[in-house]
Design goal:
By secondary structure, the protein is of the alpha+beta class. About 30% of the residues lie in helices and about 25% in strands.
Length: about 775
Amino acid sequence: MNIHATPHHAKEEPRIEDQPLVCGAGRFIDDDIAPGQAHACFVRSPHARARILSIDTEAAKEAPGVLAVLTGADIKAAGIGSASRPVPMEGRGGSKLIAPFRPVLADERVMHVGDCVALVVAESRLAALDAAELVAVDYEALEPVVDLETAAKPDAPQIWPEAPGNVVFDWALPADEAKLREVDDVIAGAYKVARVRVVNQRLVVASMETRGATASYDPGADRYTLRGSTQGPNLLADQLCAIMGLKREQLRVYAEDIGGAFGMKAPAYPEYVALLVAARLTGRPVHWMATRSESFLSDNQARDTITEAALALDENGKFLALKIRHTANMGAYVTANGAFIQTSNFARCFPGMYDIPKIGVEVKCLCTNTVPTGPYRGAGRPEANYVMERVVEEAARITGIDRVELRRRNLIPPSAIPYRTAVGTTFDSGDFRPVLDKALELAGYDTFPARRREAEQRGKRRGFGISCFLEHSGGMPTEGAAITFNGRESLTLGLGLHATGQGHATVFSRLAADKLQIDPTLVRVQQGDTALGVAGLASVASRGAMTVSNAVLHTIDRVLEKGRKAASALLEAAEQDIAYRDGHFEVVGTDRRMSLFEVAERAKDLVKRGIIPEGLDTNAKIDTPQTFPNGCHIAEVEVDPDSGEVAVVGYTAVDDCGRVLNHMIVEGQVHGGIAQGLGQVLFENAVYDRANGQLVTGSFMDYALPRAHHMPPIKDGLHNVPATTNPLGVKGAGEGGTIGSLAALMNAIADAVPNGASMDMPATTEKIWRACRAA
């Protein structure tokens, strides 16, 4: 079952994307200057919650170099709707997700610090900045609500009148209330019940390149173009067309190099709509690049949840039932996937690797006067696995059963695969016991007691943390690919989604070359442009490798099918006698053959003559069901009780990501995910002032990120079981590092620090020091 399958062209070869990037030849948002380009600056709210009494733009309009000043009135005149377009969902009792109106530019009220109020367009960036200072907005400040616990109180200020109690969505799985009560009954009568309450703090998605875009408008064609920092041009175009009431052919969205995304750069933002409107009003391309300060106040933030779990066990330590109560902060507005992430995406992760007969999940999504939340690496899955593994650790504590033995007793056995979970998903593949055992072996579990004793002799405390995880990858199933032949020398592979560092050009050009049995240098990849006409969504949900590989193979199958018809006519042989081998169509049993490229070129003439209906150029799409990557991550930490300093001295990651298309890229994805998990565990925390709603950690002076020296040495391994839901057996690999690392690190800290099990992230030196002092 330990499969390390890599196409023969993809073995540790350098990524073809790297050469221009390391030589400074990348093309990021600020690297392109459109002819006649104007510059934009947004006027943002300094208040977390306030009424807008008046907006005076006259002085700004008269400032040197100013071309236009847009307010909410201009947006309304353009017929623009709400910028909030969440995925429709049904909650408890048939209730619907409440999505309060989100203006592109606020004109009646502002709901968080950083809310867009006006847009200044000028000849230069500095002129726009200067004029923005002249826009006079008169506010009536109101009492804000910034945290979940306050928002849920009966006497809390009501953020939106249509959302009583500040609840915009009340959801449960299963939806049948009687089945939820069954879970409660099992827990009430159980031999032991482990209970935990955990907090996932709010995070800022600190991509290296901030958001930005250049908008333009062609009045002759009545067509807009947006060049933006997006990880999904098709998805972004669909959302923008819905907001602006456009036909799909009226908007082209494309992207080039992206300096980090992690889910934050997938959806439409109000700024993009305002830029498109400004381009139409001014007749000029309008460019905007967020400052880092703007990004802290406008980019979708992440996590911000409180979760309670109750796990019922019998006398033998077998898991009987799991009940989850989850509360999530949506921020001021409901983003496209904010509620979906904290409901369906979150709940489908249970029961992880474990066999738990009954599960109930209850979720409430609340609004506050904070920056809206959205997807960030893992998107609900890190939150789910974190609470699952923390409650398993608590179960080991209250039962006195060894933590490894307890996990082994409850793993889903291979004989149960495919396994239908209590939340309705079906795990098609997996072999979980060897994953755990391999991780323990690589981590040196048997010799950990000796390392702990040696640390104690030096006055330090050692901890060992285990995190088994299983996630779902794929999300949106549809993806496309296109093959276009460029004469007799090369072909272009068009993709619908866009890479943000994942190496799509490397992986998929080689995959296509392997399938076609041609030199990979003959395949050129184009991606990230709706003008390509290729179906696709976004590089999110660890879906790229599985959905695109399936689409590429499906498209090539159609190419070869059409090629056999053309070769049959060209080689004057029956179609059933045509075979394809080594990049050539040939007549079986003869030496008559013709290259793929020659057939593609000559097929054009056959189409003109009516001999075949279509050439070899092919654009196709296909749906790929979700997969279930899994793994076991183990962290070892050393704590100095005198200072509270914690060092991650060892980290082991064993993953099952199905068939591997490129080992180097998978390794990089796992390591990058671990780094982001480590950041959440030890450092990152977006803190708002409860009195006025100001973001206290609004710069890197106060919002701490991990640095290179904080990263531990990583031992990684694979125990890959191919998925059965796609031809290559590929599973996702982009988010497992983040999903597995939270509990691994926090369980290790809890193992090292007295009373550490009650500590919430981030586990700062002060928290650890206080816990050690209290002991």
